[in-house]
């Protein structure tokens, strides 16, 4: 049995950032092992739904490993496999953990090998929700693709190339982050894309109708069709193609599904407290079992609502949280007693030539105040004002890093914006863009 002072279970973004934090804080050679079922050391996952899909079409700028190993996305060193060996970190790739015995501090690999630890960090992430889980007929056919890891990305890039030879039609199911980014990627690769999603607008959990309209205009100009308010009701396979039904029946060479993600908690069921579908942790990322920590997509941590000030356990499926929570757990394990994890929700995306950031919350009952040159789709955004004119969320398309930093600080500082006559809130009430 091999023994380690610290084991990080999972090889996603968080693993690379935890390793970086351990090294920065004087980790000794031989103390850390990282276990992943993937064949690669940690990489910046956001690239997969953005630069990776530019594949054949834009090879000069397509993201490919080793180019996007962590921590290049967070402004750090590119940690290729040699980085880990130089630091004395054991990185077990192609290694699936099939049993986690937290009481005995032991992990069993699919090979039968057992590893023991003094401290464990769980960063098992999330997996795509499958349409088979909803019992959609034909959802298990070839021709349907999901996107979560490099293997998925490679399969998809190959399918894009094959589809271009065979009609060039693609369908994207889901109007969320994957749907929006993948549709742009497939379209940029030369495919004719139709998006199908149940909501009345793209990325409806964040974008106001006004913001969504700008992106929808762009997608329309790129030839991307949208079937809104609809769910696919089934698939039929014909000659390697997929025929999908949604009121009508249409053919496509390839279908990409992005209908959400589920946290990977199964190994720990009955052993750890669960909250919000994830592993419950405190402000040090410590779970309900001593010496076991959880970070990234799988962790449900105490999050203070910007709007209400209330604290509740929440998961955040975003790379910034992966990075910060991983560093937090590393510091806690090293006895550095970091202040309780204080996270401001953040999301960003890039589609075609556009690029946006969002800080805070976008509650339905807040007043949304739009600003900027939305018709030109250049620099514009939205502020969400809660009770008393308190700024609870801010969206910015096309601004500079300094602009984004100002908005972030304003949301983090719960800036109050006058809502009396002539103020921003009044402008919003009148429906004006300011
Ligand atoms: P999502 O939650 O963003 O979007 C899911 C979409 O699928 C929604 O439009 C939803 O209504 C739709 N949907 C749900 N069930 C459906 C069904 N039965 N039929 C048709 N549509 C259905 O999830 P996602 O886009 O799949 O993203 C997965 C994960 O990856 C998330 O954690 C996301 O945060 C992350 N991600 C983030 C970014 C980013 O932050 N820029 C980019 C890519 C992925
Ligand atoms: O920013 C992102 C992005 O593009 C993702 O895929 O965050 C997600 C992470 O992978 C989820 O942690």
Keywords for this entry:
five-stranded parallel beta sheet; binds nicotinamide-adenine-dinucleotide; 434 residues; binds isoascorbic acid; alpha/beta; seven-stranded mixed beta sheet
**Structural class by secondary-structure content:** alpha/beta
Task: Note the main sheet.
Answer: 7 strands, mixed
Would you identify the regions where 5 or more consecutive residues have pLDDT less than 50?
426-434
Distance between the termini: 65 Å
Bound molecules: nicotinamide-adenine-dinucleotide, isoascorbic acid
Name the overall outline.
Answer: globular
Helical element count? 8
How much β-strand is present in the residues? 25-35%
Please give the number of β-strands: 26
Gyration radius over CA: 23 Å
Report the helical percentage.
10-25%
Averaged pLDDT, please? 93
Could you explain the architecture of this structure?
The protein has helices spanning 13-24, 81-86, 150-165, 177-188, 209-221, 319-333, 401-412, 424-429; strands spanning 2-9, 32-35, 90-92, 97-101, 106-109, 114-122, 126-128, 144-145, 169-173, 192-197, 225-228, 234-238, 241-246, 248-252, 254-257, 261-263, 274-275, 278-280, 292-294, 299-304, 311-314, 346-351, 354-360, 367-372, 380-385, 391-397. α1 runs parallel beside α6 (319-333). The strands form 6 sheets. Strands 1, 2, 3, 4, 5, 6 and 19 form a 7-stranded mixed sheet that branches. A 5-stranded parallel sheet has the order 8-15-9-10-11, covered by helices on one side. It is built from 8 helices and 26 strands. 44% of the residues are buried. The model is unreliable at 426-434 (pLDDT under 50). The chain is α/β, with parallel strands linked by helices. β1 (2-9), α1 (13-24) and β2 form a beta-alpha-beta unit.
